From TrEMBL, chain B:
The lineage of its organism: Bacteria, Pseudomonadati, Pseudomonadota, Gammaproteobacteria, Oceanospirillales. GO terms for molecular function: exonuclease activity. It comes from the Bacteria. This is 3'-5' exonuclease. The keyword Nuclease applies. Residues 30-203 form the Exonuclease domain. It holds the Pfam family RNase_T. Keywords: Exonuclease, Hydrolase, Nuclease.
Amino acid sequence: MMVDIDLSQAPFSLLDEAGRARVANGVDMAYFDTGEVILDAGQPGEFVFIIHKGEVAELDTTLPNARARIGHYTAGDVFGAISILNGQSRYRFKTEQETLCYLLPKALFEQLCEVYPAFGDFFRESLASKARLLVERRASDGVSMAGFMLARVAECMRTPCIVTESTTVAEAVAMLNDQHADSLLVRAAGRVGIVTKTDLLNALILQGLERGSPVLSIAHFTLVTARPEDYLFQALVSMTRHDVARVVVMESDTPIGVVELTDVLSYFSSRSYVVSLEVEQAENLDALARASARLPELVKALMSQGVKLNFAMDLLAALNGRIISKAFQFLIPPQQQSQSCFIVMGSEGRGEQILKTDQDNALVLKDGSDWPACAADMQRLTETLYKLGYPPCPGNIMVSNPEWVNSESGWRQTISRWVERRDGASLMNIAIMLDAHAVAGNVQLLDGIRRHLFDSCSHDEIFLSYFAKMALRFAAPLTLFGSLKRPAHGIDIKKGGIFPIVQGVRTLALECRTQPTSTLGRLDALAAQGRLEPEFAADLGEALSLFTELRLKQQLARLDGKGRADNDPNLVVVQSLSSLERDLLREALHIVKDFQQRLSHRFHLEY
Amino acid sequence: MIKSLRRAADRRKQANGRYGWLFNPYTGDELVAIDCETTGLDPKTAELVSIAAVRIKGDHVLTSDALDLRLQQPDSLTGDSIRIHRLRGVDLEEGESLQAALEQFIDFIGNRPLLGWCVDYDVNVINRHVRPLFGFDLPNVSIDMAQIYQRELRRIRPHLEPHLGFESIAKALNVPVMGRHTALGDATTTALMYLRLTKGALEAC
């Protein structure tokens, strides 16, 4: 039979030669005009439609017009199968262009599903996966491993059993049993000691201590401690290093909790998370470089486990921060560390750099500090970071460049000059400076600079409108009719999606003086201040996560050596996406467009 | 005139025969798109090589239930036509006899109107073979795709000089050309063109 139908793609690739011949011989053809309803909601499904050419929209008639479009099909896509499986169509299928379809009759489709179970499963599965995806998008806060990784000591500690120096061994044992604890703390003469079950056993059995003797005599006073705001993996490292099974959590010299080894271990079950331990344990630059090289592996493991992207971003930002901070500690003399503050800027500062792209960093020196070897030290630091896997910044925004090393007052002058000048480069500099995040040294130095930045910009309406205008520089790649543009080389999601969101949110953050530097954190803060509706803020965050995820997939493919090396990871070829991904992308770009319109309205950019 | 006289005579002759029903006026809503590949271009000498027919019902082209017949090698199968339809002698070895093929064809089309690209040529060639074997000409109404396209174009855009090639019309109507120069392919493409034209594709473009 000669019908020109391409059956090499899924789901027809799940059939054998004979099955495909049955499809090719069994299909009819039909033309539908633009705007024609092919299958209406509630109608029984009579055919599976395979589009030869044209475009078909899937509409949920119960939703208001703007949100009704839930699906989009083009050449090669298949629809209508689910209507047959369900008995009737839940949605309305309407052509957006004149469309030529092949019609696979219901009876033949059902026979094929029976003879080829994999073929039938394909449709049932896509129904299930679509439903699952919708559910996942709604339930935004799933519990994830990366969330655990970011756990602080405070979240995992138990309240300690504290006894006085007059407590006897017998009382101590009774107390341990009562509280189901493994250890207790003894407070004596301003000092704090620890007694464990092992200590008690040894004392009673091996040393033959009396039941009435004071527990103080067997307590250890050299404690392994942690602070409540430490990361949990840091606590694990100190346990390993000191060969103990618990650490005492101290806050300003008073014990407030105990972290047991078993509690911590239950957090770390997968091999890939050991990367963070390696970073903590690294004693020299070589060890640090080895740990740093394993970060992409961690990213892949997180992504393949379906960890939500914002958790992964938080984790990676924390790890990158730790790596840089350690490198800084190794290289810079201690007396200078307290006089300076190393800041990362741009995407790294926002904590949105999942894979290392390039260095964007600067140094703030305390006014009046004395550091003659500063330039040489900074040159070494940049080179070291390069060895750790952070490629140099093409725009030379690095501490090795003297322009990005300055004293507190020097920075304030520079910022004032940028605000005054207001040209493209100055605006970009302010943008990355706004995202600055202190990772090493005296982190308080940055606060003063940020305050100055807010003071000089946040009330300057003219400056803000210049700043907001950058977010409108690239239009979202949507056609006049709201469907995706699809040039052969792909659409640029950095320009069309990520940048407008980041820059727009940054502008609002500048106006409202929000403290967080990550885009998602800023969105939360803006929603809390009432500057954005919570739903719209959540939509923007979801859109940003989607773009980042699409880009990350391409970056990872490139790391694997798949995909051409000259491929720009920012370019997404729409034609290669599944119809579900296309829907999500289109919706996200509509949110961007909506946001751009709001910005131009707020900052009077209509012209 | 002669044609209608002849048809009246045919009808009388067949009135009680097996094919009498063909002469009843058609009352359904279907059309049949037909196409033949032949050994030449002159309807007086050309022999049939293959015949195809596809029914059109409403918006649907019923390709799943199409007729695609290959005939036994006619004497006049020569290199020139082989180059066009690419059916060589060996391809026709298992072809049907002329009698059997035409019987199937007539049963398939019934009394439905026929649609074709320059359909008169196909009908003439078929009739030349049908008359000696069955004793009548096909009584079906025939619709020429090329003609109705031309008429429609003149109605909508009288200033345009119509460009009448099979491929160029397919392009103008935005219809994919299915396997050109196979009987079934051309019949299907013609059917799609007809659907597009009756749905007002020309006004749209």
